[in-house]
Write a sequence for this structure.
């Protein structure tokens, strides 16, 4: 990715929002050789303004934000590069304003060994752009039985462990994983699904599954695992993170656990915040996802939990699949949606509708997820290496022509409001909308 134009970057008259610094105000911003050197009112001297090496951006009406951090993406390398690879996944991330993404381990082979984690890290460094943080598997082959060598995975760069796509069903295995991870203070990220309750399930169990004659995935299958794991997290004092929360029951359990001081954190996806099971009507395979789209009451509970901080982070669960794997019978279709490129555009709707304060949105996309994986959060501060986003809330965005290799999203063809104009990661310009 290009670093051109970053010798000197000047953004004038922009609204900068960084809740980590209690910042919300109109400023000028100067980035010199990848470092934020000035941020404040009238920060751009006449001399800088006249500099021939300067690239100017008019920030009026736009937002300057710390760059985003995605806790949950599937980049499919190694093994399924026809859906996505590290290069295309990182490009998609850059387009969506992400300076950091976590790569889930359900690759082929599964990322359950030091050598695989190392290979992923090396490839991502070679590609450049946003930083890729691998998540290692909890169990060998994600088979739910034998724990991986967590110390090895961590030493190779894994920032957490997860069997995402599968739930760790055995409570003894989960307990040992939490005990083990606690010694390294990395989060155990659970895909909460009691597989005995969801066998053969194709969508959320409810009115729509009955109407469509599709086998249902009951909400309680998520709640039951969250409840069990919260008890295990309490007794082990480990860091426990709930991936893609989708039910109002799980929200209630997480809220109570947090109130009791248990180290539980949670993420929610844009699609679970915006869509219900009604979107599946017509057997729309683009809306097949795991966990499935739920009911209105769940969506409202998720939105409220995100607003009040019960749910810490927004994560995309970017899950690319090929046309062949989606353009088929509902039962055969693979679950998942892409989402890196337009997550902020979708989520900004909640701000425009008054459902989410802008500062909370920025926190949920940047500061909070950074803390969960213990990386230094991107921040708008003089002296810091620039990791920032310039977002234009007024710019329409017709979802299409994605840089991801896959286009499996129900939002394809929709016009959203708001688009990322610039992304800087590690001080480099990794995305610029022409
Ligand atoms: O919808 C999903 N797709 N949910 C998961 O948990 C896994 C993911 C994938 O890897 O495609």
């Amino acid at each position: 990715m290009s670093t051109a134009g970053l010798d000197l970057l000047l953004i004038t008259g922009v609204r900068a929002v960084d809740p980590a610094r209690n910042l919300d105000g109109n400023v000028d911003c100067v980035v010199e050789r990848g470092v934020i050197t000035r941020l404040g009112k009238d920060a751009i001297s006449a001399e800088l303004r006249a500099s021939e090496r300067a690239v100017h951006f008019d920030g009026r009406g736009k937002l300057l934000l710390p760059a985003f951090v995605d806790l949950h993406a599937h980049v499919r390398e190694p093994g399924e590069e026809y859906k996505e690879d590290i290069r295309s996944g990182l490009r998609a991330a850059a387009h969506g304003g992400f300076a950091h993404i976590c790569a889930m381990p359900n690759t082929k082979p599964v990322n359950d060994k030091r050598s695989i984690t190392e290979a992923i890290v090396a490839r991502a460094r070679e590609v450049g752009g946003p930083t890729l943080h691998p998540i290692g598997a909890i169990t060998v082959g994600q088979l739910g039985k034998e724990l991986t060598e967590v110390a090895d995975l961590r030493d190779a760069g894994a920032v957490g462990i997860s069997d995402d796509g599968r739930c760790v069903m055995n409570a003894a295995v989960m307990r040992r994983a939490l005990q083990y991870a606690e010694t390294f203070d990395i989060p155990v990220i659970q895909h909460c699904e009691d597989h005995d309750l969801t066998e053969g399930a194709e969508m959320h169990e409810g009115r729509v599954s009955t109407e469509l004659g599709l086998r249902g995935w009951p909400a309680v299958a998520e709640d039951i695992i969250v409840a069990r794991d919260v008890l295990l997290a309490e007794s082990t004092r480990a860091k426990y993170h709930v991936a893609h929360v989708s039910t109002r029951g799980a929200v209630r359990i997480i809220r109570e656990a947090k109130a009791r001081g248990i180290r539980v954190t949670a993420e929610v996806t844009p699609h679970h915040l915006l869509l219900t099971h009604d979107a599946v009507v017509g057997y729309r395979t683009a809306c097949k996802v795991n966990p499935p789209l739920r009911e209105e009451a769940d969506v409202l509970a998720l939105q409220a939990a995100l607003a009040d901080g019960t749910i810490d982070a927004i994560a995309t669960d970017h899950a690319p699949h090929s046309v062949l794997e989606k353009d088929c019978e509902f039962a055969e279709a693979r679950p998942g949606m892409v989402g890196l490129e337009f997550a902020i555009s979708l989520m900004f709707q909640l701000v425009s509708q008054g459902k989410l304060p802008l500062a909370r949105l920025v926190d949920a996309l940047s500061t909070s997820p950074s803390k969960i994986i213990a990386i230094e959060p991107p921040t708008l501060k003089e002296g810091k290496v620039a990791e920032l986003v310039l977002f234009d809330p007024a710019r329409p965005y017709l979802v299409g022509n994605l840089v991801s290799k896959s286009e499996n999203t129900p939002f394809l063809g929709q016009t959203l409001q708001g688009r990322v104009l610039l992304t800087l990661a590690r001080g480099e310009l990794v995305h610029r909308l022409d």
